[in-house]
Every structure is written in structure tokens, then in C-alpha cells.
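note to self: dont lose this again. the chain is below, predicted strucutre after it. 427 aa total, dont forget to put it in the shared folder this time
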Amino acid sequence: MRKLNPVLRIALTANTFEFYEFTLTGFMALEIGRLFFPVTEDKGAVILSFAMFAASYLTRPMGGLLLGWLGNRCGAGTVLKLSVTLMAIPTILIAFLPTYQTAGYWATGLLLVLKMVQGFAVGGEVPLNVSYVSENTVGNNRGLYFACICTSGFLGMLLASSLVLTLPSIISTLSSLFPAAISHTRLSEAWRLPFLLSIPLSLCVLWMRASISEVSAHRPASDYGMRRRPIAPLLQAVVLVAFLEVNLYTVFVWLPNYLNLYLGGALSEARELNVITIVALSIAIVCAGYLSRWIDGFKLAFYSVCAMLLSTYPLFVLLQNGDFLSLLWVHLAFALVASGQLATVYLVLADLFKDNWKSLGVGIGFSVPTAVFGGTAPLACSYLLKYTEVLTVPALYIVAMGLLATPVAYRLAFPQQERRTSASIAV
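---
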């Protein structure tokens, strides 16, 4: 296998830190809700926190549109340097925000503004990475490279989830080692530590991306004048990504809160399961990406969509009465069935838009459904549970989205000409 060149390594690894910064407030939903809203009970705190999380997604389409357009004109590599700066600044500022107790709704408003700036930056980050890698890779390894983009984001989520999981232990250790130096007031401010970690991480990303070149090995960087912009690829991308994002944010971001608040599990165990699941998911995505050397990426995506559609409801039923080991197997099953679509989603988007919309198409096709369906999925599931009191209703929401995505995935995996050939052979 050909060695991954340094330019591609920059594009693949830097995604890790931006997803760490963006998903941190999702994994700290309970703490953020208590700190920035006037609530007295945990379920209300989580709902309000995920409402804030969902609001930050409103600016993702704008980021996808503007930064995608700039990527077409100036080159994806150049705009990647801008997106990391836009992501770093608000994350660092969150660490210095006052809380609702000291500043009232000013604190809530400032957090909302900073999260929306983050959403704008992330809205352009993924499409630009996809376009940049697409322009610099050919051959059988394309699927693996795109899977690595996806995995790099999950590694960022893993870093955020792991830090949130271990934060109580870190605080306890520090307070026992330095009881005189660390007061109760300082311990109450420990929630700022994960955000402060963004300072060295952001500097590291800026240093790596300073060397990004705009030279494309397979396509001139100035080739952005697309005359043909069909609507069909946009609609197909929106449906597929909407299903993927609803499943992703429900199962891999919101589920720890579901296990804790609605099924009565310990929050520490729920977060531990989440960390293990993201590790397994990252490995499975890379394996599925490597598998795309032999199985067409569109077909692999279709098989994964079918697997998610058929397994989601039974897996949610199994969540209801499981011990830790049983819950672990259910989480690993979630990771396995989702890995195929996650591994191939960027490959599918790149191929859908490579001859027409390019970065702009990826930006619209990814950011719009992510904002409308992905970012709102935890909030939607929380409200559905509140008003229906049916513990499996999140699974029904995912299945409904899967019923829309399956025919689209089938049409892309088996184009009309191929279907006709298969039919004639059968006759």
C-alpha cells in the first residue's frame, strides 16, 4: 500500500481536534444545563443543554455554503486554515464564560453565540476535508482515506468523552494531593478544564495546517467552474446523511443520558460504555474503509443502511433490561452496523459531487441535513420520550428515517443499467 503523504496526513488528523471541541458540550450536557440555565432537575437541564447544542447546528449550513464556495474558488487547503481558527477561538472563550448563577441570561446568550460560531466552522470543516482528500487520492485506497477522515472525527469525540468520564477522578485526585491549595470554589470551576485543553490542541492544529499546500496531484486547484449542477445528487445526499446523523447523534452522543435519566443506570457506567463504543466504532470504520477496496462503496453503504434499519428497534429493546455486559454487547452491535455507512459516507459524497458541485455540493449535502436532523436528534428524542413515555420511541424515530434512506441507498448502489442487466440474467 502506498504511503500516505504528509499533506493528506494533515487533513486526516486535524479533524480530530475540531470534533473534540464541538462535541464537548454534548458529552457535558448535564453539567452545561446546570451551569447555564435556571433549572432544578436533571432531565430539564439535559433538554435545555441539547437545545443549545441543536441551536449551534443552525449555522452549519451557512458554514458549509460559504466555506464550500471559498474552497471552490481558493482551494480547500487554504480555507482549512481559516476553519480551524474559527473553531478554536470560541472553544477557548467558553472556558472563561461566567455561569448563570453569576451573570444570568447573559451567560446563556454568550454561550449560544460561541456555539453558533463553532457550528459555522464545523459546517465547512468536513466538506473541505472531503474535497481536499478527494482531489489528492486515486486508486483502491480512496475508501480507506475517506474512512480515516470519519475516524479522525470519532477520535476527537473519544477524547472528549474520555476526558468527561475521567474528570471526576482527576478532580478527586487533585483535591487529595493538594487539599490546601485547591479550595471548594476552585473545584466547582473544574468544568472549565476540558475547554482549556483546547488551547494546546488548537495551537497544534494551526502548526500542522500551516504547511498545507494547494497543489493537487490529480486536478488543477483552479478548476472550480462547474456548469452542470443537477439537483438529484443534492437530494440523495440529504436523505442519506439525515439518516446517518440521526442514528449517530442518538446512539453515540445522546445515549449515555438516556441510560442514566430514563433507564436508571449510573452516569459513570453509561459514559464508560460510550468510550468503549467509540473505540470499537473507530476500528470498525477503518476496517470497513479497507473493505471498500473489494466491495463498491455505494453497495457497502446500502448494506449498512439495511442493517441499521433492521437492528435498531431490537437493540433498543435489549437496552431496557440489560446488565453492564449485556449493554456492552448492544453498544458494540450499534457500532458494527453503523460502521459501513460511516466509512463510506464521505466517499459517496465525493463521488456524487466530483463532476458538478464539488466542495459546495458536499457542504450543502452534509451540513444541511446534519443541522436539521443530526444536531436536533438528541433534543427530538428527549421530547418524544417526555410526551409519549415510550422508552423505545427513539428507535422508531431512527427507523422512520431509515425507511426514507433505504430506497435512495439502493438506487445509488444498483444503478438502473445494472438492475436491468441483473433482471435479464434472471430471465
